Structure formats: C-alpha cells, structure tokens
C-alpha cells in the first residue's frame, strides 16, 4: 500500500516557538478557528486569517510541501463548493466559505505538524479526563483517536490505489470495480486492527472480562 496523506499535515520534528507552544494553546487555536468560521462574514478577513495561519505554519519550519500536501486533498471538493456557491449566492460569499474551510484545515495542520502524535493523544486523554465521572474512559477515547488517525490515511490510500488500478484497466467508470476492492481492503484492515487490540487485552475481550 503506497503512502497517502489525508487533509492534516504529518508531524515535522523541530524546536520552533510553534513546536514549544503549550498544547492547550494549539487546541484553542483550532477551536477558535472552527468557531470563527461561523462568525466571519467578510472574505477579506478570512483571507487575512488564512495568510496569518500559513505564515505561522511556515515559521514552524514544517515547509511549504507539507502544507500543500495537507491542503491538496480538499481542493477538488472546495473548488466544486466554491463554484456552486458562486452560482447560488455570489463570488464574495463563495470565497468566504472556501477560505473559512481552508482556515480550519491549516489551523488543524499547525497542531498536527508541530505536536508528536503521542503528546497529542496524551492531551486528548487529559481533556477527556473530567468526563471520567460520567463513565467515560479518557485512555480509550485517546486510543480511538489514534486508530482514526491511522485508519483515514489507509482507507484514502486504498481508494487511490484501487482507482489507479481501475484506470489502468479502463474500469474507472465502473463503481463496482472501485467500491468492492476498497470495501474488502477496509474490512480486512478493521479485522487486523481488532485482532491486534484483542491480543493486547483491549476491546471486546476486555469488556467481557470486566
């Protein structure tokens, strides 16, 4: 299976100020950008915020290539959304919507590109800690996030590989040739993941023992 990126930038080791920033501050950045995407009504403001976030990303030393790889998968969808919204509500609002989505992607990429995965998962577990009193398991929640982060690129890569194979055989317009192999690969990956978790005493086996 060839490697494929999916939306968020991979971690880039470094010692920049962005890398050293507290994890809670980076979480707030992502949360704030997500909330701002509902509040910003001017595309110029959205463009300014996007430019600032891109500057922060590049200041971390993560590089333009990593930033482009983080944004690239969303570009076809954003182009379609932009054209449709331009037709429906006009160019300024269409630009605002697309730019706000890019703001969220870049903000999340700053978090993932400057934070080791284990530290990120530990932070997620800490944030979920207060919900322990309601029966939540912060460690299991962090494990779920880890599996999701591993699964999404795998599934995206499986689809890309199957699509390339179908195109080489002239079957790119055949939904069955695309969907069925991806479905089989995904099920196999899920079974392997479940067996690995069970072998480590996690998942259903742990629930039954308890």
TrEMBL record:
Transmembrane segments: 27-58, 70-88, 94-113, 141-160
Topological type in the membrane: Multi-pass membrane protein
CC per GO annotation: plasma membrane
Subcellular location: Membrane
Highest rank taxon of the organism: Bacteria
Keywords recorded for this protein, A-Z: Membrane, Transmembrane, Transmembrane helix
InterPro entries the UniProt entry points to: ABC/ECF_trnsptr_transmembrane (IPR003339)
Transmembrane helix recorded as keyword: yes
Protein name (record): Energy-coupling factor transporter transmembrane protein EcfT
């Amino acid at each position: 299976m060839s490697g494929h990126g999916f939306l968020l930038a991979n971690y880039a080791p470094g010692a920049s100020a962005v890398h050293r920033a507290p994890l809670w501050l980076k979480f707030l950045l992502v949360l704030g950008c997500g909330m701002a995407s509902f509040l910003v009504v001017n595309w110029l403001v959205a463009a300014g915020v996007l430019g600032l976030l891109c500057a922060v990303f590049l200041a971390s030393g993560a590089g333009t290539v990593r930033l482009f790889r983080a944004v690239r998968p969303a570009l076809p969808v954003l182009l379609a959304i932009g054209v449709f919204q331009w037709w429906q509500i006009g160019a300024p609002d269409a630009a605002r919507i697309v730019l706000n989505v890019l703001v969220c992607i870049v903000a999340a990429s700053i978090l993932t590109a400057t934070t080791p995965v284990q530290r990120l998962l530990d932070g997620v577990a800490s944030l979920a800690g207060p919900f322990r009193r309601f029966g939540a398991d912060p460690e299991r929640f962090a494990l779920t996030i880890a599996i999701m982060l591993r699964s999404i690129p795998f599934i995206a890569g499986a689809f890309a590989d199957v699509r390339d194979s179908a195109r080489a055989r002239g079957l790119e317009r055949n939904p069955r040739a695309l969907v069925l192999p991806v479905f089989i690969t995904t099920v196999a990956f899920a079974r392997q993941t479940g067996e690995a978790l069970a072998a480590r005493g996690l998942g259903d086996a742990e629930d039954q023992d308890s």
